[in-house]
Write a structure and sequence with these properties.
Elements (H helix, E strand, L loop, with lengths): L1 H22 L8 E4 L5 E5 L2 E5 L5 E3 L17 E5 L5 E5 L2 E7 L5 E5 L12 E2 L8 E6 L5 E6 L29 E7 L4 E4 L9 E3 L2 E6 L5 E5 L4 E5 L6 E6 L13 E2 L8 E6 L5 E5 L4 E6 L2 E6 L22 E2 L8 E6 L5 E5 L4 E5 L4 E4 L8
């Protein structure tokens, strides 16, 4: 009995040490990630806002003298984008805060939305506009910010013109306005609008979007984890197009099929990035892979975890792990945010490895900080 108690104590002690080490790790559960014009990487993780410089130095921004220690916290409701002048915009709930970071890594925080905590959907000048629940953000090359926001009958939004678009795969099966989102735009001139199509009807998206990004033609590209698709929408006409995946083909037991986009099946498409050639990349969270859509083809660019059979996990899951080296032999553990630098390197927030990974332009994966595994 004493031996069993001693072994149990060792196991529990090991567990708590591991949890403590992870909490105090320089990088803890990174999720959101952006790269600035100088190839510095900024990421949101459980300990706040972190930075890895272009020469590989890690900086915990909340510990820089003079900085407010109340840096952003990575929850499901936190999003981050960066503009051409390297300002960060971080959303949480219905608010957005602008972060300006100087050469000394000192942060200036500026409220970007002034009507905090009103939880209403109201267009107009930025100083008067209101938001209810900011789900995702993206910005275009002109500096406009696009927001996916939960649609709600209770948020005093004019719903008389809501249009359920017939080319929306989800709405062909299920017309539930409480499961939808609208697209709102914060223009560089400081005006907020809720986007409508050419007929003056609100542009509606389903409620399963995992990430959004703007392509070179100012189409909004998005991933849908429930449909297992990557799609895009023309924000002028509201027309949607399928880029890859078989919408709602498999509720469970997904398969990962690469090749022609007309035949490819996606696993769990998550966060997005677009390179200089306009190729679309996404982190497949449960397949533990980085996948590319380009010129009518879907291909794996990094990751090689063995995919479990359906009876082992009906939602689909590949074996997580940590392994650097050649891209197609590398292992990840729930990759989240991804972003390119000016040299074509792709940076990856590897959440369960508590690590920022780099996929170089020549196909080599490396880790930019020590790994604290969760598995």
């Amino acid at each position: 009995m004493k031996k069993l108690l001693f072994v149990s104590t060792l196991i529990l002690t090991g567990f708590f040490i591991s949890q403590s080490q992870e909490k105090n790790a320089p990088v803890a559960e990174p999720v959101q990630l952006v790269v600035d014009s100088h190839d510095n990487v900024y990421f949101l993780h459980r300990n706040g806002l972190g930075k890895i410089t272009s020469d590989g130095k890690y900086i915990d921004l909340k510990n820089v003298k003079g900085n407010d220690r109340k840096t952003p916290y990575t929850s499901a409701e936190v999003n981050m984008v960066i503009d051409a002048e390297d300002n960060l915009y971080v959303s949480s709930g219905n608010t957005i805060t602008k972060y300006t970071i100087n050469d000394k890594n000192e942060i200036t925080r500026t409220p970007f939305l002034t009507e905090f905590y009103k939880y209403r959907q109201k267009d107009g000048p930025l100083k008067d506009a209101m938001f209810s629940s900011i789900k995702h953000m993206a910005n275009d090359k002109e500096g406009n910010i696009y927001i996916l926001e939960a649609y709600s009958k209770t948020q005093r939004m004019d719903t008389s013109n809501v249009n359920f678009l017939t080319d929306n795969f989800y709405l062909k099966k299920n017309k539930k306005p409480d499961q939808l989102t609208v697209i709102r735009k914060i223009s560089v001139d400081g005006m907020v609008s809720t986007l409508k199509n050419g007929q003056g009807k609100y542009i509606i998206l389903e409620d399963f979007v995992q990430d959004i990004i703007m392509d070179a033609d100012n189409n909004l590209v998005y991933t849908n984890s429930t449909a297992r698709t990557v799609e895009k929408i023309d924000l002028t006409t509201g027309k949607k197009s399928l880029l890859a995946g078989k919408p709602y083909k498999r509720a469970t037991c997904p398969t990962y099929v690469v090749g022609d986009t007309s035949k490819a099946e996606l696993f769990d498409p998550g966060m997005l990035a677009i390179n200089k050639n306009g190729d679309i990349f996404y982190a497949d969270v449960r397949a533990q892979r980085i996948t590319k859509i380009s010129k009518g083809k879907v291909s794996t660019v990094a990751g090689n975890g063995a995919i479990q059979p359906c009876h082992a996990n009906i939602q689909g899951l590949a074996q997580e792990g940590h392994k650097d080296g050649k891209a197609l032999t590398a292992l990840f553990a729930y990759p989240k945010g991804i972003a390119f630098d000016s040299k074509g390197n792709l940076f990856i927030a590897d959440e369960w490895n508590n690590c920022i990974r780099k996929l170089s332009s020549d196909g080599i994966v490396s880790s930019l900080n020590p790994v604290f595994k969760k598995y």
